[in-house]
Amino acid sequence: MPEQSKCTMRDVARLAGVSTSTVSAVINETVAVSPERRMRVLRAMEVLDYQPDAIARSLKTGRTNAIGIIVPDITNAFYPEVIRAAEEAAQEAGYSVLLCDSSEDSNLEERHLSALFSRRVDGILLACCVNSRAQQTLSRRRVPAVFVDRLPPASMVNTVCTDNVQAGSLATEHLIGLGHKRIGLLAGHTALSPHHDRLEGFRKAMQEAHLPILDEYLMTGDVQFEDGLDAARRMLHLPVPPTAIMASNNKLLMGVLRAAEEQHLRIPEDVSVLGFDDYLWNEHFNPSLTAIAQPAREIGRKSFELLQQLISGPAEARDSPLHAVFPAELRVRRSTGAPRG
Amino acid sequence: MPEQSKCTMRDVARLAGVSTSTVSAVINETVAVSPERRMRVLRAMEVLDYQPDAIARSLKTGRTNAIGIIVPDITNAFYPEVIRAAEEAAQEAGYSVLLCDSSEDSNLEERHLSALFSRRVDGILLACCVNSRAQQTLSRRRVPAVFVDRLPPASMVNTVCTDNVQAGSLATEHLIGLGHKRIGLLAGHTALSPHHDRLEGFRKAMQEAHLPILDEYLMTGDVQFEDGLDAARRMLHLPVPPTAIMASNNKLLMGVLRAAEEQHLRIPEDVSVLGFDDYLWNEHFNPSLTAIAQPAREIGRKSFELLQQLISGPAEARDSPLHAVFPAELRVRRSTGAPRG
DNA sequence: CTGTTAGCGCTTTCAC
DNA sequence: GTGAAAGCGCTAACAG
Question: What percent of chain B has pLDDT over 90?
Fold first, then answer.
């Protein structure tokens, strides 16, 4: 039962009767070591329960094998999936993940960035928040970074996200295809790229179908349950209410559901309802919820892959930004149907 | 526009015309520095956009100001809340968080622990998985650690969790109070402390009410949607079916809901349904779901607080284990009601 | 108050 | 193949 809690390469070297450089060579397989001495070192490491000190190594090599991930809200179910996939890929590649939650606060986001810089992470994955200054901060520091899901306005950055314009169109076309002409949209915060793009997709699809976009059927800016409830109440009380309502985030959608219930409107007979972001429980709602699904796992994995490319690749590879865009998928369930009459 | 991407304390010292120890003193406020030189240093830091190298500092001081968090599944909505609260507390105290997901795999858990040891984290928060060897591994390494939610069998460890026995009793008593005598429980994996304890709470409450516990009304071991569906089907097809069913995790609960729907059973008129873990959307289900709620944020915050106590406190403070137990709360909604007749 | 100095544990030339 | 030695950037005695 080894009891050495703190033991260094020197202890291993001493016990094995070799120099520290030999131990290092064995660990890193950087230069050949005679089989016999190799075994002695391995044994000593085992006996002493030796764990290399990653801190010391990092100081020497200048690489930490750690990346930072900053998300605006980890309790938003989309991000855990992204994080999990990224973390898996990272772990397979020998990287650790420093997780930061910016709480949708750009100042906290900046502080997290500072901390990550100080810790000398090799790269950063970032879903930014409103008013983010991350793009400037990152380019000043020249740390490899990939923006995920929520992209900054700037263009010269590496990005991985869903094609949210397509997602918006896809959703809208689904409803149009069912016969809807009056479609409401709770679009969320248009300063956030996903929400902005979905709105654009909505506009495109409506125009292509020669359908008018009414101000009364559109709400932007707010993203909470209460906001969705209020907006949906208003729309559904209109003399000519929409026959379908889409919501760009889950809380807004819950507001729509509640408003429909309040007014004893049946879904989808009286009003169709569609959400963005597909969650496990959408399927188990009553009625089950039609939704746009994003390939969160693919996004997470791809994000790390691009980041690793930036980290390991030649410096000039960083000159032209990398982009990966994934198609959204429509999951048709029972909350959408043909409009009345 | 400062363009120094890589700059050390020596650069700052040179520009300010002082020694590195003075710079260090200014940064750490460890010894007094004359105001005039202090300003010069501060200015130089600003000009060079200097970021102290946490790696070098850690190597010197032996502390990383980083903690590790290992969870079995970050896509289980309970953990993001715990993580967020812990991360918030950590960030306030100047700590960073290394996040690991063990995917319910004890071997991966061990690898994560190794990585965290190598990185010399100051402490570890851990929700362990089935067959976890973490307790032994941690005690061998003598790294401060707090077990969260999922506790190992061993007793000499620091823990923070919900009182799951009370949670089980509370849920059961609620149903008994409504008049139920035949209560089914999908208890989950009894090797996991929360599931184990809830089952115990159920038993206690049933015994106190002099109600029999029937084998046919109890399922343990499985935790997936399909398992819940199968078990609920079976129970509901019994000649004398339970009038209420509780499920120890969300996926099992969804299975119960589905089984009830299949058999055109109305909730709560035909069968009452109750879940453990309260999620945002429970309120928006149709009918809304009665559930036991755990104070996830408090658990997360408290976990970090205890860990910090272990890290900063005197060594002897680590001799007697710390425990924090939070009461569970029952959120009564519409999925539970009096049994028929 | 201030600067000089000696490492923290590791990797990496560079001679042997 | 192997070991001695020089740091990576920082902090913490220790003299001045």
Answer: 91
